[in-house]
Write a structure and sequence with these properties.
Helices cover 9% and strands 39% of the residues. The protein is mostly beta strands. Strands 1-2-11-10-7-12 form a six-stranded antiparallel beta barrel.
Length: 214
């Protein structure tokens, strides 16, 4: 198993053996239940459907309730499909916890970033804006000229303009795994991860940087 669903609990700090301060994000991982198993023979690829957070049955639609009942798994609020390493033995009803990240040095964390609504170019793209003196206050945070003269007489695609900011899936790669607290089903990763406190995250074993934690 290479990934798990979890919740971002917030940030704190820890200290290493030399007394250096390390900012960390605490992630509550699982426990997740295997709701469905997919195989190469039947589906063309190996994967499992993980369920996270218990849900009251009456809050689910009839087809979803039937899906859980067919596989004899308690209803879950969140479902995510995760690819499996080749020929890994995982069955429906099995429970996955934070111990899958033992001997892993780095992880990738995916989450939905905080929604900022409609924003201008200063906040959205970090533009400097116009001058604040000599009559320039009315255009202090404006975009400025975007024209293309007579040719090509249009605005090119990809032009940085005001628009919706945030509320999109973001993946932060190669976050160092500082500690695993199996008794709490939690891990501590160095640095920040996408999303607000309490937001859902998907944590994967990093492909680029392998090896055991120091």
């Amino acid at each position: 198993m290479d990934a798990m669903i979890g919740t971002k609990l917030g940030m704190t700090q820890v200290f290493d053996e030399l007394g250096r301060q390390i900012p960390v994000t605490v992630l509550q991982l699982g426990p997740c239940s295997v709701v469905q198993r997919k195989s190469v023979e039947k589906d063309g690829y190996d994967a499992v459907q993980l369920g996270y957070l218990d849900q009251k049955p009456h809050r689910l639609t009839t087809p979803v309730r039937g899906h859980f009942a067919k596989n004899k798994v308690a209803p879950k609020r969140v479902l995510r499909e995760v690819r499996l390493p080749h020929e890994e033995e995982v069955g429906v009803g099995d429970t996955v916890d934070a111990s899958i990240f033992n001997d892993i040095a780095y992880v990738d964390v995916s989450g939905i970033s905080k929604g900022r609504g409609f924003q201008g170019v200063v906040k959205r793209h970090g533009m400097a804006g116009g001058r604040a003196s000599h009559g320039g206050k009315s255009g202090l945070r404006s975009v400025g000229s975007i024209g293309m003269c007579e040719y090509p007489a249009r605005v090119l695609k990809g032009k940085r303009l005001p628009g919706h900011m945030g509320n999109r899936q973001v993946t932060t790669q190669n976050l160092k795994l500082i500690a695993i607290r199996e008794e709490d089903n939690a891990i501590l990763v160095q640095g920040a991860v996408p999303g607000p406190t309490g937001g859902l995250v998907l944590v994967r074993k990093s492909i680029k940087k392998a090896g055991a934690r120091s």
